[in-house]
Design goal:
With about 180 residues, the chain is an alpha+beta fold. It has 2 helices and 8 strands. The longest helix has 17 residues. Pfam families: Pollen_Ole_e_1.
């Protein structure tokens, strides 16, 4: 009886030794504000991570100091991620200004094992870094392309919906 228990325990240990535990590939990085003071709260900024030939995306949210940490996306939990991965600065609760060169960066393997980092810093401004006359930072004129609807006053006794629901509709009559 004791030999059966020892053999069972030995087989159980051998089976567990063969099982490969899923490894987690972690991306660690940070964002930097170029025109902020040193006490600026960088929390809540979203960073998107996309790897080549992987359908899933990963989203990271920055901490107060601008650092973020997320798992690299992969289709299978035990598969290693593709080495062609990108991180993109998406935005935050306030308007951010960033050049196209500073919005996207490659992901490279860090010196630590199973850890990854961004190759170039993700930088942004909180105000327009260009001159005020430059059209790239000026908001579009709200008068052009306005989508205001016309609402004709209808008596409430009629029980109809607002006229803006009916006015844009032009029925085509006479086509069989």
């Amino acid at each position: 009886m004791a030999i059966n228990r020892v053999i069972t325990a030995l087989l159980f240990v051998l089976v567990l030794a063969r099982v490969e535990l899923s490894t987690c590939h972690v991306l660690k990085g940070s964002v930097t504000c170029l025109d902020c003071n040193s006490h600026y709260d960088l929390s809540g900024i979203k960073v998107l991570v996309k790897c080549n030939q992987v359908k899933k995306l990963a989203m990271a949210t920055t901490e107060e100091d601008g650092s973020f940490k997320t798992q690299l996306p992969s289709d299978a939990p035990t598969s290693s991620p593709s080495f062609n991965c990108l991180a993109k600065l998406l935005g935050g609760s306030t308007q951010l200004y960033a050049s196209r060169n500073n919005m996207v960066t490659n992901i490279v393997k860090a010196r630590e094992s199973e850890s990854y980092t961004i190759s170039t810093p993700l930088n942004f401004h909180t105000s327009c870094p260009l001159s005020k006359k430059d059209a790239k930072c000026v908001a579009p004129d709200p008068k052009i392309g306005s989508s205001k609807t016309i609402d004709l006053p209808l008596p409430p006794e009629w029980g109809l919906a607002p006229s803006s629901y009916y006015i844009p509709f032009f029925p085509i009559i006479g086509i069989p």
